[in-house]
Amino acid sequence: MNLNEYLSMNNQDKFDYFMKTRTSTNRTPKYWVNWDKVIRDLKEHELNLNTLNYLVGKKNIRQEAKNLFISQPDLLKTIPVLLATRDSDLDVLAFDDIGRMYTYNINFHDIDISKIDKYINFIDETGLFDFLSQHVNRSLVDYVFGVEAGLDSNARKNRGGKQNEDILSHYLELMCKKDDELEYSTQATADAIMKRWNAYVPEILEKGRKGGRRYDGAVYNKATKKVLICETNFYGGGGSKLKAVSGEFSDLYATSLGPAKNVEFAWISDGPGWDTAKNPLFEAFQIIPNIFNLKMVQEGMLKELIKGEK
């Protein structure tokens, strides 16, 4: 289907076409682990980890560790990653001898070696000493490589949000590479668009943020002097955010981008999550003419829109 055919439909038919042509996932192979980050984070600890290998298999590990940390306090900065956490300033819940609950803080970033016994007791109570003395079969560098890969998997949620931005960037690059009249930018503000292309886009000042809104993508047509503003997202599951984002982009189009001269707006969204929020999405279709999914982008609708082929 081309853009003209899509825009000639009534809103119900457009909505139905959008829903039935969605994709089930936006996860490329790079989604699961960012190996470059894993290796980079590992190198930060590698020297300390090789030194801490000294403790592996030690029988009197508490005393051996205490002596080692007193002589090299910075080794304590590596303890959090051995516990599979990014946090270095920890609040801890504990119980005293008669069972009363209390909390204490232990800081592995700003080391206070005068509190060495506090560090030793904490490490012991986590079970790390037992693990090092009885269960480690390989280098701690190899162990932390696995830990870092696991910690990186916790960042998948953030990567999932960025995936659609990367996919959009991929299509914009392909589109502009094949057409000398088109140029694109990602994470573009109204100010950046004005400076680069001398094209006016209404400034959207977001609450609690400095500067204007950053748009996921912007395409400029040198022949027509038009700008296409793109926002994109993907929802694998439901939640209140889907209703909120429908309202957000509807307001953005109705109050700012829609009335602006020489500005087009496209909202590119996708994912099975919209099955849980059909009503707010359909309401957005009443306001925003250019709501596309990834298949529609692949079919060339963004290029048709900025080239005026409708």
UniProtKB/TrEMBL annotation:
UniProt enzyme class: hydrolase
Keywords from the UniProt entry: Endonuclease, Hydrolase, Nuclease, Restriction system
Ranges where the Restriction endonuclease type II DpnII-like domain occurs: 14-304
Catalytic activity: Endonucleolytic cleavage of DNA to give specific double-stranded fragments with terminal 5'-phosphates
InterPro entries with a match to the protein in the record: Restrct_endonuc_II_DpnII, Restrct_endonuc_II_DpnII-like
Keyword Transcription regulation: no
This protein's name: Type-2 restriction enzyme
Pfam families in the cross-refs: DpnII (PF04556)
Enzyme Commission numbers on file: 3.1.21.4
GO MF terms held by the record: DNA binding; type II site-specific deoxyribonuclease activity
Membership in a protein family: Belongs to the DpnII type II restriction endonuclease family.
Top-level taxon of origin: Bacteria
Example of a GO biological process term: DNA restriction-modification system
Role noted for this protein: A P subtype restriction enzyme that recognizes the double-stranded unmethylated sequence 5'-GATC-3'.
